[in-house]
Amino acid sequence: MTEYLKFIKDPAFIITILIILSMEIMMQFGCYKPFIKRNSFAANVNRITDHAIDKQQELDPNILIVGTSMAYEGLSTEILNDRLSPFGYRVQSIAIPGAELIVQALAVEKVLEKFKNVEYIIHVNEAEMPWVDFKTISTGTLAMISEFNRSSVFKKTNDYQYDISFSDLIFISIKLVTYRRDIGDWILNPALRIKYMGRSIKEKEEFGISSYSNLYKLSLSQYGFSNLEECMQVSHPFAPIAEGSDTMHRDSIYSTCYVANEKKLESGRNESTERYKLRLSQLYSIFNERNIKVINVFPPLPKYLNYVNYPERIAFWKSEYSSLLGDHVIDLYRAFPEEESPNYFYDLVHLNQKGNEIFSNKLADELIEKIKREELK
Fold first, then answer.
1. Other CB atoms closer than 10 Å to residue 33's CB: what's the count?
2. Of 68, 144, 273, 354, whose Cβ has the fewest other Cβ atoms within 10 Å?
3. How far apart are CA 79 and CA 246, in angstroms?
4. Which of 286, 289, 341, 334 shows the shortest CA–CA distance to 127?
């Protein structure tokens, strides 16, 4: 016992504890956020929501886009604002790549504290999501929700009926645990991290009202495959790089084709779809409480995913989730001619610049028609 007391009274031990506590307190107040690894889950959720809030003086939206990577990569706020501003609408996006409904809810609540004029939410719905919803929290989702207010996060994980482990609670609560891998990466390669920080600052200065601009010029059509098996053959890590393509493009095509080929989705109602319904209702309750109307949008997909049977899954949404869906459902699944669809996708799930332009303009066309019919006011 005496040795133990001597140990805890040792100045070196006390100084170490004080340093750790000081670091934790600083991180709790957000001091580490600017240093988070570029394009990580945590960095993205901060960058996208903070950018929208920072640009409020330039753009105070009455339409807010919510969704995942399909909305993030696929919709241009510049095009939508150009098309809709004559009718008095201002559009901002807080779509976040990889964001489950709980992340979307936390992001929405964060920005709605500032945005008081939002009348409509454009929710870009990926029709297969009800069948891939899980009870446990993924690593990416855990990293993203840890960037929001802890009391809100704990309430949301309960409301959304996640199975939370003790290690999950520690990850959310203690920032030194939350950022331990990020800090380790910094220590191992500080020069690269500083380079990324400089690039992030430069991008922030270059971007206008949007936190992202789709600059992908490459497309699936450069690899000329007709099904997922062929896709994996022509894009595997040792396959020749197609003319005009690059290693990152080839590898992105392979990884998305691999996931699509491995993923065998059920159809019809099951435990996962019921859980998703509950979580969707929790998200939409945020809008209902504020009298914000929802416009549900089903985005386009490449022809290689026909096996997923999106029309049947969209019909499932309209049937099983009819009490939740907004008054306006816009189905743009076939926004591109089927045989031409590979021209408009960078890989199997991300639109390229051409696809972004067409998807954005098609959505604007639909919204303008609704405005002219006085369905949107």
1. 16
2. 354
3. 28
4. 334
In eight-state DSSP terms, residue 296 is E
Banded pLDDT at 193 (limits 50, 70, 90): confident
Q: What is the pLDDT of residues 260-281, one digit of tens each?
A: 887 777 778 899 999 999 999 9
Q: Rg for the chain (alpha carbons), in Å?
A: 23
Which regions of the chain does DSSP assign to beta strands (E)? 63-66, 91-93, 120-124, 293-298, 328-331
Question: What confidence tens digit (pLDDT) does each residue in 194-227 have?
Answer: 777 777 666 666 677 888 888 899 999 999 888 8
Q: How remote is the C-alpha of 193 from its chain's centroid?
A: 23
Residue 238 to residue 274: CA distance in whole angstroms: 42
- Going along the chain from its start, the domains and CATH numbers come out as 32-372 (3.40.50.1110)
Strand-strand pairing, 293-298 and 91-93: unpaired
DSSP 204-244: HHH--SSS--------GGGG--SSHHHHHHHHSTTSPPPTT
Are the CB atoms for 230 and 312 separated by under 8 Å? no
d(CA 287, CA 252): 35
d(CA 33, CA 147): 9
CB 91 within 8 A of CB 371: no
Decide: helix, strand or coil at residue 42: helix
pTM of the model: 0.91
> Which helix H or strand E contains 160, and what residues bound it?
none
Tokens for 32, please give them.
């580490």
With a cut of 90, say whether residue 22 has pLDDT above it.
no
Please, what is the angle between helix 271-289 and helix 101-112, to 10°? 10
Q: In this structure, what token pair is assigned to residue 318?
A: 């309209």
Residue in this structure with the two tokens 């640009």, named with its chain if needed: 55
Q: What tens digit of pLDDT does each residue of 153-191 get?
A: 999 999 999 999 999 999 898 888 888 888 888 777 877
Distance CA 50, CA 281 (A): 26
The three-state secondary structure class of 147 is coil
Instruction: Using alpha carbons, list the distances in angstroms from residue 110 to 31, 113, 152, 240.
Output: 18, 6, 10, 46
Compute the distance between CA of residue 354 and CA of residue 204 in angstroms, rounded to an integer.
23
